[in-house]
């Protein structure tokens, strides 16, 4: 057999049938549901009199519009409450395993899946959410789908798809101190652009990627979609297996050993073909952040805001100018030192215990700058508990951060956590689109350490100066 | 799903790249449990001013583009979130065809599932179609799906590519699920094969 990539192998293991025109019926091992993109799919099933084929391969959790404040009170927004109650009715009717709002295991679906061992290497995993790519960190083929496809998976446990092309992004070398997985991924997106991975599945490889812990790999794979890719992957290795072992829903004992020996066969073969191959050197990557309203507008924290006048293409020039106007920035200004109003540490990109530790390291013994609202939103109830056991909550509270309950929160502003027009936010989330965190809000994407540094100095700051 | 065969309609140009799904419909409007009624939120931040009144400068607020059924944009249309609310909002507004030099994968897929035809054409041609679309009420383009051509107002025909399976589904207005369920035997035998090969695959069961 010709040498195959990790993606090729997972794909081949899941093809039920390839139709004459080249479309495949691809089997899905895990279907993750949340309250926003599932109601219309359940309704479709109900209207067609169809059953949910495999509830035991499906999992549901509420995350997108749950409040992150006191949860013993009823949810105030009637539409959010309705979506949550609708999910609760649906999971009951169709027998779907569900982590309710008041469960300690509740959290962001892309944090909960890996944390519970529901997402495993070699699987196909889908969810009606583009950041499903996160689970690719385990060496699973995981991608976001629309609600019609959610309904399709519910009814058939399959999806119709043509194979993606293979792309490899290699990062070799040693990351400099103070440079995190988020900086690596921002640098990659800045390099290849938001359409750089369109039509491809990206395998992240190289010593710098291998050296990352699972949280870091999840941060990288999470933002594959911001590079336009269908999914991101990291080959499963001992770091992966150590992470998966003893998770509640992972195979146990002898089954686990059998699983590991299968997972070890998945790595890309020597000589496998990649349609696109991109390399970055770890040493070249600095703590990074975005200046505009597209995730590809990346700068090192030591950089200056680019000048549209230098852009030859007229429509790109106009777009850059619009971004500067929206963001309230001037061409040529140093990005460091720009004052911020809000700091958000959370989201499926950066809300795991490792992220909170990195933020706490900067926050310890310091105070949130006057006039800045800084919030920490752990990725799950379990992350929150772990942080509290380690005393991180006290570090944050002493510094003046808000310590909140788990959910998507200000990443997309579907719950009450929103920016107001003109507010500038240092955010560990994944998208800086206009209005993403609230109408008129201005988002700078950066790492947890950089977000904490912005909180305590009141402006965009090189976190390396504080550790 | 409504069939898509031919469409002769007003086209509107949005000469921007990377129009993301948050721009097509912001997250705060995703709290519905219905597929319909989202047209009023389409392009919210461009279409309305902060006080809620219409922005008279926005193309879809002007005649005749208020009734546009075709949108022409630049690269990477629909990037960002997987929300199918984006095509639902476009469809509810009246858009049945979107034309761009490139699309984000999930949005591209989601269009087909809702009877919206996404057409990929080179940037120069998109520019020509944008220029056609400025010709007021003469700005009609004809999309002929069976023949796979866009007919410009001057009669020139621009061919486009489309996956044969997707073309068939659009022409017939077919539901994917019904089609896939015809392969029940194959799905079942696949499941048996996997149960034999990877018996360690756990089920998700909660107490």
UniProtKB/TrEMBL annotation, chain A:
It catalyses: (2R,3S)-3-isopropylmalate = (2S)-2-isopropylmalate. One of its GO terms (molecular function) is 3-isopropylmalate dehydratase activity. Pathway: Amino-acid biosynthesis; L-leucine biosynthesis; L-leucine from 3-methyl-2-oxobutanoate: step 2/4. Binds 1 [4Fe-4S] cluster per subunit. GO terms for biological process: L-leucine biosynthetic process. Pfam families: Aconitase. Keywords: 4Fe-4S, Amino-acid biosynthesis, Branched-chain amino acid biosynthesis, Iron, Iron-sulfur, Leucine biosynthesis, Lyase, Metal-binding. [4Fe-4S] cluster binds at residues 348, 408, 411. InterPro entries: 3-IsopropMal_deHydase_lsu, Acnase/IPM_dHydase_lsu_aba_1/3, Acoase/IPM_deHydtase_lsu_aba, Aconitase_4Fe-4S_BS, Aconitase_4Fe-4S_dom, IPM_dehydratase_rel_enz, IPMI_cat. Its cofactor is [4Fe-4S] cluster. Its EC number is 4.2.1.33. CDD domains: IPMI. Residues 8-458 form the Aconitase/3-isopropylmalate dehydratase large subunit alpha/beta/alpha domain. Catalyzes the isomerization between 2-isopropylmalate and 3-isopropylmalate, via the formation of 2-isopropylmaleate. PANTHER family: 3-ISOPROPYLMALATE DEHYDRATASE, HOMOACONITASE, MITOCHONDRIAL-RELATED. Heterodimer of LeuC and LeuD. Belongs to the aconitase/IPM isomerase family. LeuC type 1 subfamily. This is 3-isopropylmalate dehydratase large subunit.
From TrEMBL, chain B:
SUPFAM superfamilies: LeuD/IlvD-like. Residues 1-123 form the Aconitase A/isopropylmalate dehydratase small subunit swivel domain. GO terms for biological process: L-leucine biosynthetic process. Coiled coil: none annotated. Pathway: Amino-acid biosynthesis; L-leucine biosynthesis; L-leucine from 3-methyl-2-oxobutanoate: step 2/4. Its EC number is 4.2.1.33. Pfam families: Aconitase_C. Gene3D superfamilies: Aconitase, domain 4 (3.20.19.10). It catalyses: (2R,3S)-3-isopropylmalate = (2S)-2-isopropylmalate. One of its GO terms (molecular function) is 3-isopropylmalate dehydratase activity. Keywords: Amino-acid biosynthesis, Branched-chain amino acid biosynthesis, Leucine biosynthesis, Lyase. Belongs to the LeuD family. LeuD type 1 subfamily. HAMAP family: LeuD_type1. Heterodimer of LeuC and LeuD. Catalyzes the isomerization between 2-isopropylmalate and 3-isopropylmalate, via the formation of 2-isopropylmaleate. This is 3-isopropylmalate dehydratase small subunit. It comes from Acetobacter orleanensis. The lineage of its organism: Bacteria, Pseudomonadati, Pseudomonadota, Alphaproteobacteria, Acetobacterales.
């Amino acid at each position: 057999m010709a040498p195959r990539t990790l993606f090729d192998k997972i794909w081949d293991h899941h093809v039920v049938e390839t139709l004459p025109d080249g479309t495949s019926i691809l089997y899905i091992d895990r279907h993750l549901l949340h309250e926003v993109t599932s109601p219309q799919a359940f309704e479709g099933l109900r209207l067609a009199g169809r059953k949910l084929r495999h509830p035991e391969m499906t999992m549901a959790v509420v995350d997108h519009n749950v409040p992150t404040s006191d949860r013993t009170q009823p949810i105030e927004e009637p539409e959010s409450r309705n979506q949550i109650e609708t999910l609760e009715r649906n999971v009951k009717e169709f027998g779907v395993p569900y982590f309710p709002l008041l469960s300690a295991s509740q959290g962001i679906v892309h944090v909960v899946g890996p944390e519970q061992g529901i997402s495993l290497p070699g699987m196909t995993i889908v969810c009606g959410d583009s950041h499903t790519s996160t689970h690719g960190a385990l060496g699973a083929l995981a991608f976001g789908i629309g609600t019609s496809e959610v309904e399709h998976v519910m009814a058939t446990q399959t999806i119709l798809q043509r194979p993606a092309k293979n792309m490899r992004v290699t990062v070799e070398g040693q990351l400099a101190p103070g440079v995190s997985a988020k900086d690596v991924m921002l640098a990659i997106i800045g390099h290849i652009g938001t359409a750089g991975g369109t039509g491809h599945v990206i395998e992240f490889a190289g010593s710098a990627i291998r050296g990352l812990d699972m949280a870091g790999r999840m941060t990288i794979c999470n933002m594959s979609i911001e590079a336009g890719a269908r999914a991101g992957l990291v080959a499963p290795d001992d770091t992966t297996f150590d992470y998966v072992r003893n998770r509640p829903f992972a195979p146990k004992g002898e089954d686990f050993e059998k699983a590991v020996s299968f997972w070890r066969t998945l790595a890309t073969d020597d000589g496998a073909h990649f349609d696109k191959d991109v390399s970055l050197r770890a040493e070249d990557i600095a703590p990074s952040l975005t200046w505009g309203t597209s995730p590809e507008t990346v700068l090192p924290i030591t950089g200056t805001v680019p000048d549209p006048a230098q852009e030859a293409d007229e429509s790109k020039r106009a777009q850059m100018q619009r971004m500067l106007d929206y963001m309230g920035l001037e061409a040529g200004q140093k990005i460091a030192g720009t004052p911020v109003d809000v700091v958000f540490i959370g989201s499926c990109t950066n809300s795991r215990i490792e992220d909170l530790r990195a933020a706490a390291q900067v926050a310890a013994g310091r105070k949130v700058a006057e006039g800045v609202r800084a919030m920490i939103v752990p990725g799950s109830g379990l992350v929150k508990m772990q942080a509290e056991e380690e005393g991180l909550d006290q570090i944050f509270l002493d510094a003046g951060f808000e310590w909140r309950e788990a959910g998507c929160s200000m990443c997309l502003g579907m719950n009450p956590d929103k920016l107001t027009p003109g507010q500038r936010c240092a955010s560990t989330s994944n998208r800086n689109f206009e209005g993403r965190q609230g109408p008129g809000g201005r988002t700078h994407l950066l790492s947890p350490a950089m977000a904490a540094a912005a909180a305590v100095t009141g402006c965009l700051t090189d976190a390396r100066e504080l550790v | 799903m409504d069939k898509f065969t031919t469409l002769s309609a007003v086209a509107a140009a949005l000469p921007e790249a990377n129009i993301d799904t948050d721009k097509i419909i912001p997250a705060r409007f995703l709290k519905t449990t219905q597929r319909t009624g989202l047209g009023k939120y389409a392009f919210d931040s461009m279409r309305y001013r902060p006080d809620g009144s219409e922005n008279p400068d926005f193309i879809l607020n002007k005649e005749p583009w208020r009734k546009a059924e075709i949108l022409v944009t630049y690269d990477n249309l629909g990037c960002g979130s997987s929300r199918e609310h984006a095509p639902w909002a476009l469809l509810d507004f009246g858009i049945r065809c979107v034309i761009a030099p490139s699309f984000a994968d999930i949005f591209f897929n989601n269009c087909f599932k809702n009877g919206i035809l996404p057409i990929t054409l080179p940037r120069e041609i998109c520019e020509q179609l944008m220029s056609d679309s400025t010709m007021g009420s003469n700005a009609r383009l004809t999309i002929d799906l069976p023949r796979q051509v866009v007919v410009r107002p001057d009669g020139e025909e621009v061919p486009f590519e489309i996956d044969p399976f997707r073309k068939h589904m659009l022409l017939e207005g077919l539901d994917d699920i019904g089609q896939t369920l015809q392969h029940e035997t194959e799905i079942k035998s696949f499941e048996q094969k996997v149960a034999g090969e990877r018996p360690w695959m756990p089920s998700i069961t909660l107490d």
